[in-house]
Amino acid sequence: MSKSSSKLSLDKKHNITGWIFLTPAALLIFCMSFIPMIQAFLLSFKMGKGNALKPAEPIFANYSRMFADTVFTQSIKNTFFYLIIQVPIMLILALILASILNNRQLRFKGLFRTMIFLPCATSLVAYAIIFRTLFANDGIVNLVLVNLGILNSPYSFLTHATSAKVIIIIGLLWRWTGYNMVFYLSGLQNIEYSIYEAAKIDGASPVQTFFRITVPLLKPTILLTAIMSTNGTLQLFDESVNLTDGGPANASITMSHYIYNMSFKYVPTFGYAAAMSFLILILVAILAFIQMKVGDKRD
Amino acid sequence: MKKKLLSLLMAGAMTATMFAGCGGSDGSDASADKADDAAADKADDAAADDAAADDSADKADAAADDSASAGGQKLTVWCWDPAFNIFSMNEAAKIYQKDHPDVEVEVIETPWEDVQTKLTTAATSGALDTLPDILLMQDNAFQKNVITFPDAFTDLTSSGIDFSQFAQGKTAYSVIDGKNYGVPFDNGAVVACYRTDILEQAGLTIDDFTDITWDQYIENGKKVLDATGKPLISMQAGECDLIMMMMQSAGSSLFNEDGTANITDNETLKVVMETYKELKESGVLIEVNSWDEYVSSLTTETVAGTINGCWIMASIKTSEDQSGKWGLTNMPSLVGVDGATNFSNNGGSSWAVTSNCQNTDLAYDFLKSTFAGSTELYDNIISCGALATYAPAGDSEAYAAPDEFFGGDAVSKKIVEFSTKVPSNITGVYYYEARDAVATAITNVINGGDIDAELKTAADTVNSQMQ
Q1: What digits encode the pLDDT tens for the residues B335-381?
Q2: Which one of B167, B194, B377, B379 has the minimum C-beta count within 10 Å?
Q3: Contact B237 A21 (CB under 8 A)
Q4: CB contact under 8 A, B124 and A261
Q5: A162 contacts in B (CB within 8 Å)?
Q6: Burial class, B322, CB count within 10 angstroms (exposed 0-12 / middle 13-18 / buried 19+)
């Protein structure tokens, strides 16, 4: 017994140990995540309501149906609106906050860091409802604006298409900026401080240091956060459901919200819902691929 | 070495258990529960055929009891409001237990959204044995669920329950293909509540709002607005409760009998949209963002009244300092529409018996002698605001009692009377689809859209979602 095991080289032994540790998690992910994904993919080629599912005719019927569905195309537009406006603003803000907090001279760093990160600890539903209350007709935002004389009468933020979208974006910024900042902070820890000192000695301004040192060295982290935020925004759900309920007139509905409606609020159309989910997957994959190509230029 | 061996064993054990788990879910329709059951009874089931394996242990027990027609006297019920329908169900159980002491009713608190999700999941995965014996269903979702999942419900037509005792407009929600699938529970008859003290400032009384049309309503509303600066009514933006109430008050629906959408050339709907637009533009109606805001507009005197299902009275009554300042009457009727009345319905729910119920005779008898046969029950639950749609209950003394909150009016009796006059409509399978599409249309119309064009878009949306 001991003889046969000693025959294995040290390398092989390490490999086996690694695989043994990997197996449980890999199997779990396979059973819980990949099998349902394959089933959902098969489901997306079926048509019908509730249990009365039959193979789609033609086979891509659910996929072609999406583009004729005005509500779904509206939801794609809305989601991309959030993506294009919110993700860059959030990442830039997070980067700026992170480099401010990385300053060694700054006092009460821990306090500021906690305060900026704290919104991440709130539940998505809870903060969405609080934002809804803040921007209500008799909410605090209207109260302040009217009392300051900026508005004559309360403005109904959530019943106007543009302001409803803007409020979702503000909500997202509040909720997620701190989260991304923490990634940047940890990325900044890995940048040797002496580089900054050297830059200072060479007479680089803080702005130059930021663009010439911080941003290039943080590139892998920026790429990571960009992909994660894109992914998260494409799957946006809680804010649309709880803050605006997709309104007014579907002006703020997201793709996931519409998929949910199609599966549970309306007469269940799981085949179509699964097809829409796969469109999100494809979009995420394409965007991530583009970002990797753009971000991974090795100079 | 020993440690290594141990860790290897543990890792092995973990993988093995997971494989077992996966094996269970491989079967196309087997639920997690069944997999567990199967694992537990592996020895017994090994030789048994598929059908036997499919039955959960519970089911088998119940079936055995049923054949012996003794024991198993237990009904499980899903409903959602502890102060309202759960309370009522427990009261019903008490009444039934007087004659049947060995019957047990177990109520499981399940919010409506969860009932819907669980039902959808159970029916689509084939795990109907996860359903209770009886569940409470929103009237608006009844058609959709019974037609989509016909296997999940039991036909009550020949159960011995006398459905003719209920308001016809109410029973219609749970009738599919001429078969009764639900026992009506709470009343959603529409009431119009007004702050009589605010109306007085404009020189109006509650009588000026009784049996009126929407034109008169808007005229009165302008008077109130001029005199007090308060709108008459508030509504949640993006929801079309009022639209649906107006539609039903004229017996009109968003669907035809054959299930096709009745939106584009629906003259009643056009009148309704125009009326709603006028209400909004005249300032008589204000839109709020959420349900909480809607309720607070009533309790904080932002508006002088409201029109909604009679269950809204429970929310109005939360502000006790306003006692005696409220009056109640019927809603305005549409102008220029055939069959327009002053009565409508919004909300309400009915009891359904699921196909998982093993002891259906018990469930039928229970419903027959409580919700469909006991005026005593309805007298007991009137305290929580559950008003009957069961006609004989309206004759009882408890319903004739004056309500001080509403200026000493016998409001309960009035509402039961309203409910018998509600025209029935067709909710259809695609009620929620149509409702959302029409809500989108009305939002666009208020923002300057053309009614015909918006209704066309709404119809297209619904037709595409009906695929």
Answers
A1: 888 889 999 988 888 999 999 888 888 999 999 888 888 888 888 88
A2: B379
A3: no
A4: no
A5: none
A6: middle
Given this model, what pLDDT does residue B323 score? 86
Q: Are residues B148 and A268, on separate chains, in Cβ contact within 8 Å?
A: yes
Q: pLDDT tens digits for A215-225?
A: 888 888 998 89
Instruction: Give chain B positions within 8 Å (CB) of A135.
Output: 289
pLDDT for position B15 = 53
Residue-by-residue DSSP string for B385-432? T--B-BHHHHTSHHHHS-BGGGTTB-HHHHHHHHHHTPPP----TTHH
Please report the residues numbered 372 through 411 in chain B whose beta carbons come closer than 8 angstroms to any beta carbon of chain A. none
Q: Is A262 on the interface with B (CB under 8 A)?
A: yes
Identity of the amino acid at B167: A
Q: Which of B203, B201, B193, B205 is nearest to B232 (CA)?
A: B193
Strand partners, B175: B180
CATH fold group of domain B190-344+430-465: D-Maltodextrin-Binding Protein; domain 2 (3.40.190)
Mind telling me how many Å the CA of B464 is from chain A's nearest CA? 7
- Yes or no, beta carbons of A247 and B237 under 8 Å apart: yes
* CATH classification code of B72-188+347-401: 3.40.190.10
- Paired tokens of A207: 């702005």
CATH architecture of A64-295: Orthogonal Bundle (1.10)
- What is the Cα–Cα distance from B446 to B20, expressed in whole angstroms? 59
**Choice among A48-57, A244-253, B40-49, B364-373 with the minimum mean pLDDT:** B40-49
Question: Do residues B254 and B431 lie in contact, with contact meaning Cβ atoms separated by under 8 Å?
Answer: yes
B90 touches chain A (CB under 8 A): no
Domain ranges of chain A: 64-295
